[in-house]
Amino acid sequence: DVKVTQSSRYLVKRTGEKVFLECVQDMDHENMFWYRQDPGLGLRLIYFSYDVKMKEKGDIPEGYSVSREKKERFSLILESASTNQTSMYLCASIGGSYEKLFFGSGTQLSVL
Amino acid sequence: GQQVMQIPQYQHVQEGEDFTTYCNSSTTLSNIQWYKQRPGGHPVFLIQLVKSGEVKKQKRLTFQFGEAKKNSSLHITATQTTDVGTYFCAGINHKDDKIIFGKGTRLHILP
Predict the structure, then answer these.
(1) Which of A35, A74, B37, B58 would be a feasible disulfide site paired with A43, CB 3.0-4.6 Å?
(2) Whether the Cβ atoms of residue A23 and residue A104 lie closer than 8 Å to each other
(3) Tens of pLDDT along A62-104?
(4) Is the Cβ pair B99, A101 closer than 8 Å?
């Protein structure tokens, strides 16, 4: 069964901490995405990557960075967490033919 | 930048009634996809539409892609309690490979 795995389901961090959200897919997909989901705002694209070491900004990249050192792993980094980054973070991957997105189960991040 | 507007934001229907959600893109799309997210879950792929004017059906669900490839709709006939959740459309533009989601329509079924 195909899988996108996010390292944590729930995470609590303090303001100013550096936060790493990890995502791993086992489908050999080229493209990976990070979204954040907030009530009433839907899914907003933070960053995406279409190849190893490649990254592109989405619609809300401010305050975030990403890393894609290996094809199967796409990490989202909050350099200095702030309370307005409290959200559900969803990782997704899709093959080169863009047939369908597979989502991870999400990480609910709370920044106190 | 590219935007995908989705309405309504919420919909309450009696069980057995029909339901429709609409998406409209600010730009012409390459494809459009639809996803369903159950409460507490993550979005799960339902279908992809590629061709102008395309109509696809999955049991009680009917999906349409507009002639100009800028709008789409999902219609559910005779809703059931299992249809509860949030339905998202996602527009894909192969010029920049972004997948942009609408804000979703949360469907609530009244028994």
Answers:
(1) A35
(2) yes
(3) 999 999 999 999 999 999 999 999 999 999 999 878 789 999 9
(4) yes
